[in-house]
Design brief:
heterodimer; A: mainly beta; 12 strands; 0% helix; 56% strand; B: seven-stranded mixed β-sheet; four-stranded antiparallel β-sheet
């Protein structure tokens, strides 16, 4: 079985500051890792994903995440956040015979002006 | 077109009512999902359809009845719901119910309130 731990339920930051949202997973086999974002009153949207290859993956809006197998982590980072980044962020893991992603509890990113 | 649409956006129903939620995608995806999401919580998987056949039912009460009339449509029929069933109901689709690497595309959800 696999699981996902998002250590922070809420992360408040000021606009233009850097941010890191933490995600750790546990799995005994190879996994696929995802970050989804949910803006208020909307569904989830894929932000980025790691399937294989380069351990650093980037999204089109400035977020990046690094797959670290030794630390079983897939932390999400952005060097400078905007008010519009305020949303709920979910880390998810799948693979190893589990076709359906397992979601973490979510981290609420709150960007203050 | 990478859109999953859901209707209605909002639904208020009494405990004796019968209603249906609808979901549609035109991406040629062969796996479709229903999730239930409570406020500030992750989505909880309810049902998975693969090639129009029910492949996963996560022990959901029978007052929720899914239906997949064709590869583009997914319905969720509701009957005799309880107030604790109030939640955001999300539909999602993916290319296949494959080895887990396929991205899930989510609809905007239906906000359900049971009185």
């Amino acid at each position: 079985a696999q699981s996902v731990t998002q250590l922070d339920s809420q992360v408040p930051v000021f606009e233009e500051a850097p941010v890191e949202l933490r995600c750790n997973y546990s799995s005994s086999v190879s996994v696929y890792l995802f970050w989804y974002v949910q803006y208020p009153n909307q569904g989830l949207q894929l932000l980025l994903k790691y399937l294989s290859g380069s351990t650093l993956v980037e999204s089109i809006n400035g977020f990046e995440a690094e797959f670290n197998k030794s630390q079983t982590s897939f932390h999400l980072r952005k060097p400078s956040v905007h008010i519009s980044d305020t949303a709920e962020y979910f880390c998810a893991v799948s693979g190893g015979g589990s076709y359906i992603p397992t979601f973490g509890r979510g981290t609420s990113l709150i960007v203050h002006p | 077109d990478t859109e999953v649409t859901q209707t209605p956006k909002h639904l208020v129903m009494g405990m004796t009512n019968k209603k249906s939620l609808k979901c549609e995608q035109h991406m040629g995806h062969r796996a479709m999902y229903w999730y239930k999401q409570k406020a500030k919580k992750p989505p909880e998987l309810m049902f998975v359809y693969s090639y129009e056949k029910l492949s996963i039912n996560e022990s959901v009460p029978s007052r929720f009845s899914p239906e997949c009339p064709n590869s583009s449509l997914l319905n969720l029929h509701l009957h005799a719901l309880q107030p604790e069933d109030s939640a955001l109901y999300l539909c999602a689709s993916s290319r296949t119910q494959g080895a887990g690497q396929d991205t899930q595309y989510f609809g905007p959800g239906t906000r359900l309130t049971v009185l």
